Amino acid sequence: MNISLRDIFNQSKDYIMIVFGLFLCAFSFAAFIIPENVVTGGVTGIATIIFYLSDRTINIAIPNYAINVVLLVAAYRIVGKQFVIRTVFGATVFSIFLGILTPFFTHPFVEQQSFMNIIIGAVLCGVGLGITFSHGGSSGGTDVIAAMVNKYSNVSFGRMMLYCDLLIITSSYFLFHNVDSTLFGYVFLVINSVAADMAINKRVQGVQFLIFSEKWLDIANAINNDAKRGCTLIHGTGWYSKRDVKMLLVVCRKYESITVQRIIKRIDPNAFISMVPTNSVFGQGFDEMKVRLHKYEPKMRDENTDVQTK
Asked: Are residues 19 and 93 in contact, defined by beta-carbon separation less than 8 angstroms?
């Protein structure tokens, strides 16, 4: 398999941006969140609780990394090798940055401005996560649990992550009995989610591709194998050429769209692509549709009177 310089550059760029995004996340926790004694969601939140209970004698990076490793070992057969490798890299880099930076910030970055520290920390962390996800990275954490639960239940990936984060933040109140810190944790969760969402793709929840290419078979196989997304083959006729054409319909999450674009460009740079953002995607592999259904009562037609009766 021949690897071009462009492919090497793109992969190197991805890893550089992932490392930068993880650095922003670690810096936000070390400089703004941890000095304020605030517990956030995710594995970092659990590691923070252990850090506080040990009276700051245990380096926070140790429980953070250890919990991620345990989760990944448990989830290996469920979430797949690619997810595990990506998460191990992210968890390792994040834990290293967190362990190095935390001892340098014994006091809040902005003195006597707790709320400001939480807002700044949440925005920086959200932007860092957005950068990381946009380039195919992962910081580990509760997304491992969410991926495991999503595999065998109808609970969506995002909803499961929210449940885990809320449980961790709420538990901090029963351990430390500090209402302010608990409320700050909820504030962090909301702002962090919004910032990450905006950083990824301007609030776009999904992306739909229509791909026209003579190399449709190679593109479909690559999307199935590399991006782990399904394709639908649609038969059509080009009205200008009057020739039969085949097009691929692909729906993926917003942070996966870069991967799909690179697959297409690598195989057929001249492919014709229509890329449409979608606000919501429901169904297998995505979120579950949440609507209230009215009770269905079938109606029968009276053949003699031709009047509908129940």
From this structure: yes
